[in-house]
Amino acid sequence: MSDLPDYYFRVRENGAFVFRVDTENRQRRIDMDQIAVVNIRNGQIKAHGERELSDQDMAVIEEWMAERTALLAARDIDDIHRAVDYLNQTTHWAQSKASDEDLENVSDALLLAMHDLRSVLVRKKADRLLSGRDKGED
User: What's the pTM?
Assistant: First the structure.
């Protein structure tokens, strides 16, 4: 059991509960002692109960937060690339497989979602172009 990590992070939607893992006890059981609650959205680390977090605890938690934030950002980008694939598959479906009834069922929702997305993308692209021009990057 010696290859277990010293800390365990029970992931939740906006962070994690942090536990210190102890396998060095008489019963040779795995004990997990909650030491903190982490919120990665606002960067908050709260010690659990009356305990104080050591410098090592803080270093491990902060490293986990940085890694978790990077992982979630990578997942977001991956989800967007998947959405592009789904749009392409949806186009193929609409062109080659969908019945009139199928198209009637989804067309309005798809058109509104695509219009909304296009509006946001065009506005954001214009903002980027204008901010580049403002910085003298013509």
Answer: 0.75
Cβ neighbours around 18 below 10 Å, total: 25
Are residues 63 and 47 in contact, defined by beta-carbon separation less than 8 angstroms?
no
25 contacts: CB under 8 Å, gap ≥ 6: 31
Which residues make Cβ contacts (< 8 Å) with residue 30, sequence separation at least 6? 1, 4, 21, 22, 23
Q: Classify 33 as helix, strand or coil.
A: strand
- Tokens 């002692």: give the residue: 33
Joined tokens for residue 117: 């997305």
What distance lies between CA 69 and its chain's CA centroid? 7
Q: What is the pLDDT of residues 7-56, one digit of tens each?
A: 999 999 999 999 999 877 767 788 899 999 999 999 999 999 999 999 99
Separation of alpha carbons 87 and 7, rounded Å: 41
- Are 31 and 20 in contact by the 8 Å Cβ rule? The answer is no
